[in-house]
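FAQ

Q: What does a record look like?
A: Structure on top, sequence underneath. For example:
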């Protein structure tokens, strides 16, 4: 299959997914969205959070600190949740995605909340932003899409300002538990997911002046076998004491077994 047909299939799959699911992620007002985002992306799984991946993402936000007035690119923004959250924190946000439907919904949500975000349908291999535009590029679960497109890294580096930073959160498929879980949970092949490993990430970011991999979670990756609650803002978060114990044990185990960790925070300097 040619690269263009792979991208077409990936775009079509995500267009369909956003059409069916994306608008429900945006409550009617900014305060409701902030709480929704907090529960999905900033509440640890063991504390009752609504996703498996918030622990590392919460850590990323702690690293970022105050984002007011920063020019930020929501990289592979999907339907714009991350960018809209950052804009509500005072950042100047742009975002792009291969999916035109995702971009349509991102702009709809930004308009509903009165935010001056700029979301555009764009190919990671052909970004049209000027050189040295952004202080920060950030993406959740996007590197495993763009890593298979060789020119993406060059454009990512190009749009960062000198002294800027790119930061991403990903799951590492080199972990046996991740490989096993994805047999049962991965989307169809046309979704565009590509397996990633520490070595493939290093290769992708080889043109950057510095790249750091921060592996996270070994035993705690078994959380992926647990169920998630319905996303109802009327319900309180319900802590998961068992998984809190697992995470505490994992804080000892994971640093000793980085190759077995299933998630990674990636930080890169242009």
């Amino acid at each position: 299959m040619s690269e263009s047909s792979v991208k077409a299939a990936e775009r079509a799959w995500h267009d369909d997914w956003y059409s069916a699911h994306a608008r429900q992620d945006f409550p009617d007002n900014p305060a409701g969205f902030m709480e929704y985002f907090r529960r999905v992306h900033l509440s640890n799984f063991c504390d009752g959070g609504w996703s498996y991946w918030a622990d590392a993402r919460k850590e990323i936000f702690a690293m970022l600190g105050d984002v007011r007035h920063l020019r930020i690119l929501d990289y592979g923004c999907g339907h714009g949740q991350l960018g809209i959250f950052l804009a509500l924190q005072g950042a100047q946000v742009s975002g792009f995605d291969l999916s035109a439907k995702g971009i349509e919904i991102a702009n709809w949500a930004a308009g509903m909340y009165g935010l001056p975000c700029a979301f555009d349908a764009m190919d990671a291999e052909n970004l049209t932003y000027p050189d040295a535009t952004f202080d920060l590029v950030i993406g959740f679960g996007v590197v495993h899409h763009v890593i298979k497109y060789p020119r993406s890294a060059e454009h990512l580096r190009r749009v960062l300002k000198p002294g800027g930073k790119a930061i991403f959160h990903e799951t590492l498929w080199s972990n046996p538990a991740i490989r096993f879980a994805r047999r049962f949970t991965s989307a169809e092949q046309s979704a565009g997911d590509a397996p990633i490993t520490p070595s493939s990430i290093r290769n992708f970011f080889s043109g950057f002046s510095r790249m750091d991999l921060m592996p996270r979670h070994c035993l705690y990756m078994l959380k992926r076998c647990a169920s998630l609650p319905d996303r109802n803002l009327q319900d309180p978060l319900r802590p998961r004491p068992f998984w809190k114990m697992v995470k505490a044990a994992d804080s000892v185990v994971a640093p000793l077994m980085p190759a077995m960790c299933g998630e990674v925070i990636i930080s890169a300097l242009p």
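Q: Is there anything notable about this one?
A: The chain has one domain: 3-269.
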